[in-house]
Amino acid sequence: MAVDSYTIEVIPFSQYNWTFEHPGWLNLNPAAVALITTFLTLGYYLSLELFLLTLLTFRSRKALYFYSLLISTAGLILQSTGYILKAFENPCPAVFVTVLCKVGWVSNVTGFSLVLWSRLHLITQNRSLLRLTLVMIILDAVILHTPIIVFEFGLLSPAGQREKWLLPMEIMERIQQTVFTLQETFLSGLYIFFTFQFLRLGTEIGDGMDKGGGDKVVKRVVGLLIGVQVLAIGLDAGLTAFDFLNMFTLKCTLHPFVYAVKLRLEFVVLNELVGIVKGGLPERFK
C-alpha cells in the first residue's frame, strides 16, 4: 500500500505477530488494528466509568475495600493509556510508556486481589484465614511483579541485546498469569464456600426475612453471586490461554478490558452481599 512517498506493509492476519519478538508499534493489519482498538477503547471507557462510580457509590471512604477498588480502577486507566501509547505511533519515550503500563498493571492486578480479600470481611470473621490470605497476596505481588518489570525494561534494549530477555520474559509471563489466576480463583473459591454456608444456613440469615420466603431469597442471591464468580474465573482462564498460545500482545490488549468487566461485576457482588449481611451473621459463623 503506497501513501504519497511512503510504503506501508500490510501484514495478513494469519501471519500477524502477537509475540514479544516484535518490538515497537504494531504492524498494520486492518482486522488486528480494529480488534486492538476496540478492546482498548472498551477497557478505557469502563475504567473511567468505574473510577467515577467508585467515588460516587461509597459514602464512607475509610475501608480498604473502597481504596482497593479505587487503586485497581486507577491502575486500569494507567494501563490502558500505556497500551494505547505502546500500540500506536507517537512521540512518547518508550521508558515512560513502559512505566505507565507496569504501574497500571501492578495496581490493577494486586489491587483486584485486595478487592477480593477485603470483601471476605463481609462474610467471615476468621482472622487467621484473613491474615494468611493477605500474606499470600503480598508475597505473590513481590515475587511475580518484580521480575516482569525487570524483563520488560530489558526488552527496551537495542537490537542484538533485547533477544536475551525474550525467553525469560515469555516464561515468567506465563508463570505470573497462571499464579495470579490461581490466586484469584482461590479467593473466589473461599467466597463461594462461605456463600454456600449462608445458603445452607438458610433462614438463619436475617431476622427481616419471612420464614416462607427466606430460602428462596438466599438461593437467588447466592446463585447470582456464584454465577458472577464463575464468569470471572472464565475470563481469567481466557487470558491464561492466550499466554500459552504465545499471543502476548493480544492478551495485553484484552487485559484492561477483562479486569474492567470483573471490577464492574464487583458492584453486583457488593450490592448483593450488603443485602445479605444486613441480616446479621449467625453466631456459629463468626
UniProtKB/TrEMBL annotation:
| Name of the protein | DUF7703 domain-containing protein
Matching Pfam families: DUF7703
| InterPro entries assigned to the protein according to its UniProt record, in alphabetical order | DUF7703
What residue stretch is flagged as signal peptide? none
Q: What keywords sit in the KW lines?
A: Membrane, Transmembrane, Transmembrane helix
Q: Which domain of life is it from?
A: Eukaryota
Q: Which PANTHER family match?
A: INTEGRAL MEMBRANE PROTEIN (AFU_ORTHOLOGUE AFUA_1G05950), INTEGRAL MEMBRANE PROTEIN (AFU_ORTHOLOGUE AFUA_1G05950)-RELATED
Domain DUF7703 residue range list:
34-276
- Looking at the UniProt entry, the stretches that span the membrane are 31-52, 64-88, 94-117, 129-155, 175-199, 220-242
Presence of the UniProt keyword Transferase in the record: no
